[in-house]
């Protein structure tokens, strides 16, 4: 009898765990690649091609510029989770009309950031992916490309940043849909915005590997709080205190990703601002989705919502423990 009662819940928990672990794998492949083009003189341009890598295994991406593949004499090496190639091209007519194309096998979802800087400081920023595999430089360089590109990068980063999303999901489960949630999310937003700016401006930074392990620990902490359901604890009474404290760490995590993408020197502040705005837009979309799901589940009177939340805390905590161990081993 007990086995029959637990079976549906165990199936739910197993399905949720498998879903979360599959998202972990997919998200790891979504780190953006980078094509950096810098003008050397009137006719020559330095190309830097940066591809996400793990050890000495990189994503299988092929770069084609103006119909030409990189020369066989190019410089190449692995460094800090990336594969780097460098070479020069000659182009008498400038970058206007230059086409950058990337071939991705299968249905990969990796974004490729295109960034150009002229000798005069003019900037062009763009992005391509599997559905839009090429980018052609416009005839006139515009500031709008920086705004659009970094806003979209912020939205996409938070929506594929599963560790940040699970932290936010835990905040929603703890605070509920009321004023506590508003202040908790506001505190999280303000605190991670501060450390994102501080780190990106080079004022203060933290080592990435320990930081990512502590971010995983922050999720474990909230998952344990949900499982215990102690309504008198500081976390439940004042979730804004917890969200603001851990938000400082998550801001350094956002900055680490942004450092990997890179910021244009001429429009540094604008790119940083709109990346953060994109993160907040994505975060609000995710919270709205959770609230909508909770409202739908409430319609099914036979569902034990409290039990579902309890099992979700174990699923989220299990994934966070996996991350924490994996990240500690990476020290």
What does this entry look like structurally?
The chain is of the alpha+beta class and 331 residues long. It has two domains: 201 residues; 110 residues, Immunoglobulin-like (Sandwich). 56% of the residues lie in helices and 18% in strands. The protein has nine helices and ten strands. Strands 1, 2, 3, 5, 6, 8 and 9 form a seven-stranded mixed beta sheet that branches. A three-stranded antiparallel beta sheet has the order 4-7-10, with no helix packed on it. A hairpin with a 5-residue loop joins strand 8 and strand 9. The chain is elongated and about 70 Å long.
Largest β sheet strand count, sense and barrel closure: 7 strands, mixed
Count every helix, treating DSSP H or I runs of 4 or more residues as helices.
9
Strand content: 15-25%
Helix/strand order, N-terminal first: HEEEEEEEEEEHHHHHHHH
What would you call the structural class? Answer: alpha+beta
Helix content range:
55-70%
Low-pLDDT segments, ≥5 res: 1-7, 9-15, 24-29
Radius of gyration: 22 Å
How far do the termini sit from each other?
47 Å
Number of domains: 2
Count of β-strands: 10
């Amino acid at each position: 009898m007990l086995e029959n009662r637990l079976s549906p819940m165990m199936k739910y928990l197993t399905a949720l765990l498998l879903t979360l672990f599959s998202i972990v794998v997919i998200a790891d492949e979504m780190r953006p690649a980078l094509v950096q083009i810098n003008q050397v003189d009137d006719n020559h341009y330095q190309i830097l091609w940066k591809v996400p890598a793990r050890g000495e295994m990189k994503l299988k991406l092929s770069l084609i510029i103006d119909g030409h593949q990189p020369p066989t004499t190019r410089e190449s090496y692995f460094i800090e989770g990336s594969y780097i190639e460098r070479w020069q091209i000659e182009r008498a007519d400038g970058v206007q009309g230059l086409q950058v194309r990337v071939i991705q096998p299968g249905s990969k979802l990796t974004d490729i950031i295109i960034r150009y800087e002229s000798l005069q400081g003019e900037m062009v920023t763009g992005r391509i992916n599997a559905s839009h595999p090429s980018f052609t430089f416009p005839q006139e360089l515009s500031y709008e490309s920086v705004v659009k590109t970094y806003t979209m990068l912020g939205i996409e980063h938070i929506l594929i940043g599963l560790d940040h999303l699970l932290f936010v999901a835990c905040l929603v489960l703890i605070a509920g849909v009321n004023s506590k949630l508003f202040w908790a999310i506001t505190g999280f937003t303000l605190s991670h915005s501060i450390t994102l700016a501080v780190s990106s401006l080079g004022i203060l930074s933290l080592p990435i590997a320990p930081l990512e392990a502590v971010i995983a620990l922050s999720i474990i902490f909230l998952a344990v709080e949900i499982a215990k359901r102690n309504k008198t604890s500081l976390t439940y009474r004042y979730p804004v205190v917890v969200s603001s404290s851990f938000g400082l760490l998550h801001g350094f995590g956002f900055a680490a990703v942004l450092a990997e993408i890179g910021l244009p020197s001429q429009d540094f502040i604008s790119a940083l601002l709109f990346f953060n705005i994109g993160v907040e837009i994505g975060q609000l979309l995710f919270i709205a989705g959770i609230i909508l799901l909770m409202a739908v589940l409430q319609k099914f009177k036979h569902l034990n919502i409290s039990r579902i939340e309890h099992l979700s805390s174990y699923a989220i905590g299990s994934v966070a423990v996996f991350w924490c161990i994996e990240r500690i081993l990476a020290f």
